[in-house]
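Quick sanity check, MerR-like DNA binding protein:
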Amino acid sequence: MAMRVKEVADLVGISVRTLHYYDEIGLLTPEKTCESGYRLYTDDDLEKLQQIYFSKNLASL
């Protein structure tokens, strides 16, 4: 199931801007985009986002 940026941001509790930034720097680039250019995140993308946040929180300890 593919989710748009706003849906992912709401689900995870981060800002849309953060997801756009991750895409800009190549940290989390969604696998798909729709015809109108919206980023579409897959379950694999969400798993990678979870790993990013785990690593980020681990580094701040």
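Posting the structure with no commentary besides this: The chain has one domain: 3-59.
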